[in-house]
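Rotation project, supervised by the postdoc (A.L.). Task for the rotation student: set up a whole-complex structure prediction and record inputs and outputs verbatim in this book. Inputs entered:
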Amino acid sequence: MSKPKIGVVMFDAATDAASVIRAVELAGGQPVKLHPKTTTAPDVADLRVVILPGGFSYGDYLRPGALAATQPIMSVLEDAVKAKELTVVGLGNGFQVLTEAGMLPGGFIANTTPGYHHAEVEFMVENTVSALTNAYEAADVIRLPQKAAFGSYTATETELEALEANGNVIVRSKDSSSGSARDIAGISSDDGLVLGLMANPEYAIEEGFGTDHPDGPGLGVDGQGLFISVVRAAGATNAEGVVGA
Amino acid sequence: MPTIVVEVMPKPEVLDPQGKAIDARLPELGFREFSSVRQGKRFELTVEGEATAEVLDRAKELAAQLLANPSTEYIANVEVAK
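Outputs recorded:
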């Protein structure tokens, strides 16, 4: 069986793209680089899943994700999602891009404690059917790096209530260091086709180069499951091309 | 060449951590007249030709589409600079 193809959008200055590509490969997928100026659907036509990697695209200028959200590829992705042909996953800054593009509700503000934060954070997986979290069990606690200067998720009470009521909060922080509303770290659209996670799982995929772990430093590889989930979703054979959406 | 100024502020109901960090310094600096600070952004658009009503409308369109994010911000002001 051929490896499921996963698109990775190469936004200018997105520092995590190379690590996301490696994580996709290690999870058994075949990464396909996509140029942000792509305007033709054929570039994404044979893809089931596209990842927007994190890492300060366009220097975080204007607002994090704001300039990436205006790139031509975003409307191609949005059209494919509307046609139920594609799942789009945003990691870190990629999540910010999805809110800026209006594909996910809410937005991000500066961290509530000043500065750029880079820390390992424990998260609770709350949804185990999404294209990003189907490899986990309910209430799994995973440890992932999180790095952001504008990492606080915010949304209106109405939007937050809707996310909770529809089971669209897929991952939540175990502590409130990010200052995000209701400690939300990952969300899904109602149809499960647009997913965002404010964390950097691509740096917790290889033993020795992962997060701190009881067995030793760098041995934490809890991020693997997220990429395995994405590869599974890309290889799914149901009509909508997503697992359990 | 005329300039159009666009001012964008964090929505009142959205926390402004940057403003709060500035605010926290005020008492020590002796500024007790101000009870809070909110930090926004000012954009200056240099106009090709005259700043007509149509151009001002285009500036408002740009502000709504790109310069402000309606989830977290609002457009406080769009005007031709004096």
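Student's summary: The CA atoms of residues 13 and 39 of chain B lie 14 Å apart.
Supervisor addendum: Chain B touches chain A through 13 residues (CB under 8 Å).
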